[in-house]
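Reviewers asked in the last cycle whether our approach scales beyond single polypeptides. To address this, we selected a multi-component target totalling 621 residues and predicted its structure end to end. The input consisted of the following lines:
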Amino acid sequence: MVQVGETGRLGRGAITGAPVLTRRGWLAGDSPIRQVLRRLRRNRLAVTGFGLLLVILAAALLAGFLSPYDPLKMTVTDRLTGPSRTHWMGTDNFGRDILSRILYGARLSLQVGLAVMFLTTAAGIAFGMLAGYFHRLDNSIMRVMDAMMAFPAILLAIAIMAVLGPKTVNVVIALSIVYAPRTVRIVRASVLAIKELDYIEAVRAQAAGHLRILFRHLLPNALSPLVVQATFTFAYAVLAEASLSFVGAGAPPPTPSWGNILSEGRIYMQAAPWITLFPGLAIAATVLGLNLAGDGLRDVLDPRMKT
Amino acid sequence: MALYIARRLLGVIPVLILVAIAAFLLIHLVPGDPAMVMLGSDASPQQVQTLRMQLGLDRSLPEQFIVWLRHVLRGNLGDSFFLGRPVTQALMERLPATMQLAVLSLIFSLLIGVPAGLIAAVRQNTGWDQLVMATAIGGISVPSFWLGLAMILVFSVQLGWLPSGGYTPLWDNVWQGLRTLTLPAISLGAMQAALIARMTRSSMLEVLRQDYVRTARSKGLGHWLVLLKHALKNAMIPVITTIGTAFGVLLGGAVVVEIVFTFPGLGRLVVLAVQRRDYPLVQGALLLTSVIYVAVNLAVDLLYCVCDPRIKYE
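The resulting structure, written as structure tokens, was:
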């Protein structure tokens, strides 16, 4: 028998000894992070997703040790050779080792993805909380967000890259501008719902300041959808970075990126399909890992959003 | 409902104004003097000055915006440098191809996504459900350009069934047009099909738990009649709202897919413009696609209101 506790401080029902649930469905007496991890461990898809991500992250971090060759080194005699013992994923038209380029490309993709995720989350927290909490700012902030969302994402990113120039840091800026409005909307929606709850009224009655209410009481309770959205933003950013590099508006060559390896291999697709096959698989595996992890986190943290 | 439509129409105006401001400011984001950047380091000071005057950069920013907006409202988006002709003309030539591609992709994603989501919901927790959901999560993870390249390799190079590129307008030759559009439309629409399948499944599962579905079943109505007439109709309401967003994603995604299939659409033109630093063309394309996107979303919202009379403007 499960009892629902008022404060969530008791670990077990005083009379029955049954586990006590807090109002938000967490087991009382156990830290929410530990409970999230426990629930995630039971979710097979999430375990697969996080497992995939760990492997890719390790490959990116250890690229210097794992890469059999310098990713920029051209060996004309080895050009367009298929997968073999010496070159596991073959070579490109300049004789560069594809495996080494993919490993270094992973660094770029993950760096861009992580940076975009953090920047959009920061922007989402700042603008989303302001819009949701201060009614006077809501309309102006949200109209700007609506206008930004009125541009097709990739096209806006390409246009920003056109003016800023092809640099990795500009890819991060462009993608953060493109994806921030989605996070702002999610945080605002959470804040709007939470700020009407009784406990916020109670905190306000205790003469708590705006900053205290925002960061101590509203933000922690708006974190679940934000964490889920951050995972999906990471996935979108990896895909978008690859797309930008593919059309020549991303990180400039010879910097290896999954998108530009694919783009360069396109011309040799018939003679050397491995140049396009492996970076495509790397992108798909990373995005799949992020999507599975995001789905798992959503099921654990915010089951109402389950699709 | 009339009040909702009026308010929704009015709500578009500030968004369009902000979109125009953002598109206008694009050129001003260029580090340094945009005229110098466009002409390159070899340009003479006189050439730079002429271009500055042509772009109106010698005036104050608000003045520039008002002049630019006046031109835009008359359909004048300036001149393209590398094409040497009006931007509006260049965009209008390419727009029909991209619109056909985006619409066909949308039709494909609905034709695949809705039945797949329906099957997954009706056969929840069975092999069918797992198959559909696994395919859907795979579908949202595969980049469209990679799928396009793989399809060219299989269906064009190996099997020779469909062309690997080119474009024939549907109104010139329907059969040939469909042949050239099939592979780009599938590679562009696959991700949206996967998202629509997920959305249809979750929406359908929610509807199937409703009392009125149970009532319909207890009245003795047939299984398929309940599913298609009572449940699916209501389950489609959230799916309809995603159509507007999906169309915007397809318009943007077309840029990448058009490169793969050497498709002469708006996207390829934008990429060429970016490579040549033709800012008026980039600016025009951005403005045009966002206006289309806003218009499609408005149409979808109005359709949504017609489908579900409970919708009110808040």
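Chain B touches chain A through 54 residues (CB under 8 Å). We regard this as preliminary and will revisit it once experimental data from Aim 1 are available.
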